[in-house]
Automatic annotation (TrEMBL):
Compartments, record wording: Membrane
Keywords attached to this entry: Membrane, Transmembrane, Transmembrane helix
Domain of life per record: Bacteria
GO CC annotation terms, alphabetical: membrane
Name of the protein this chain belongs to: Fatty acid hydroxylase family protein
Coiled-coil residue spans: none
GO biological process terms held by the UniProt record: lipid biosynthetic process
The organism of origin for this protein: Salmonirosea aquatica
Alphabetized InterPro entries for the sequence: Fatty_acid_hydroxylase, Sterol_Desaturase_Related
Fatty acid hydroxylase domain sequence ranges: 98-232
Length: 249
């Protein structure tokens, strides 16, 4: 992809960006339905939120916002404001991927809390929380300010650190998968392993569904680390659960 982008003009980059983000959207929807049907026995919500026309419109707007972020990143890279660490070793790719995930998890936690402030929530983030249960496009039902804001966090990190292209690709793949999983109405991780070290620090579908029900808790994305640290973590039974869960503690 890097080699391709080097020799493309900005019109071609725009087309690539829109197509790439459309493919990402389709992958997310496909994975959502695949996991929902495969893991039906682990369902914890009775019904998915309906998909309305206004959600489809907002989805298209967010797709275009994400495409704009991609274009901005390419422009900054072509003008050497963003420097990529090409030909990195496997170890460097692994370490930089972990660094990128850690930094984004931290930044997105506080950005998410900012969106829940008294001023910004009704103006910006409330739209996403109309989905008190989730569906296959809930991940993309965001205010354009949120979509641009999340994207600019990534741009800022790419400006500060020299990440290998492979680390960026791995992170974006994990981000897509994790975002899709977080908006499922089924739990991906089996209960029998939910108590294991590291596993019980991951932000899961149940964790984020609780946030959609109770907006004062569970602001994290990939992990529960920051919610635990800042006392914003809450886990309790949902629709199809009879007993209080001991996971995530």
């Amino acid at each position: 992809m890097i080699e391709i982008l080097k020799y493309k003009n900005y019109f071609e980059i725009t087309i690539i960006s829109v197509l790439l983000n459309a493919i990402i959207l389709l992958i997310s929807v496909f994975v959502y339905h695949l996991l929902s049907k495969t893991l039906v026995k682990q369902k914890f919500r009775e019904a998915s939120y309906p998909i309305y026309k206004k959600d489809i419109i907002l989805l298209v707007v967010v797709l275009l916002c994400n495409a704009i972020i991609f274009i901005i990143g390419v422009i900054l890279w072509k003008n050497e404001y963003i420097i990529l660490h090409e030909n990195a070793t496997f170890l460097d790719i692994a370490l930089k991927t972990i660094l990128l995930i850690f930094c984004m998890d931290f930044l997105m936690y506080f950005f998410h809390r900012l969106m829940h402030s008294k001023i910004l929530f009704p103006l910006v983030h409330k739209r996403h929380h109309e989905h008190d249960s989730t569906n296959s496009i809930s991940l993309f039902v965001l205010h354009p300010i949120e979509a641009i804001g999340f994207g600019m966090l990534i741009i800022a990190l790419l400006y500060v650190f020299h990440f290998p292209p492979e680390s960026i690709a791995i992170y974006l793949s994990i981000n897509l998968l994790w975002g899709t999983i977080a908006h499922l109405n089924v739990e991906v991780l089996p209960k029998k392993i939910s108590h294991l070290f590291l596993i019980n620090t991951l932000g899961t579908a149940k964790f984020h569904n609780i946030h959609h029900q109770n907006i004062n808790y569970n602001f994290g994305f990939y992990t529960l680390v920051w919610d635990k640290l800042f006392n914003t973590l809450r886990i309790y039974p949902l629709d199809n659960e009879e007993e209080k869960s001991t996971s995530f503690y």
